[in-house]
Amino acid sequence: MIRSFILTGVFFVIVSNLSIDAQERQTAGSDVEQRMRRRALALEINARVLNNEQEVVWSQTQTRTAIPGSPVRLRLDGSNIVVALQFTPFIRRQGRVLVAQGQIWVEGADGAINYYTSMQTIPMEYNEPIYFYPLGTATQIDSSIEIIITVNPYRESAAVTENE
DSSP label at 110? Predict the structure, then answer.
């Protein structure tokens, strides 16, 4: 009888310790979440295709959430072009920058595939639009691609969408 009483007591001590550990982990997890939310950024990305007359023939806007140092990826697929972009915001003591990387595959009229890459480090300020041209401003194709990125601190009250 004393043995079962001791085993029951040990069982309750173990169970109570487990519940305290779970509460501590939950509290620690929410602290990490709070710190991450404070650091989070909202990237509004407006991708546009312009024809030779600089008229918008296609446009899409989306907002993505990012932690500084973590990339946000964007892929655009056309009939003869694939554009894979990656935007990585960094916040440093010297200021904020956005690293924009692009890989472009274009099929020419002769069926040959041309490959282009670009990488730029762009100084950024909150709520200031950043213009990025993955194909450059003068291209060998009949249209150009313009990406406008606006970076702001993340706010939970703002509607954030993720379209891939």
Answer: T
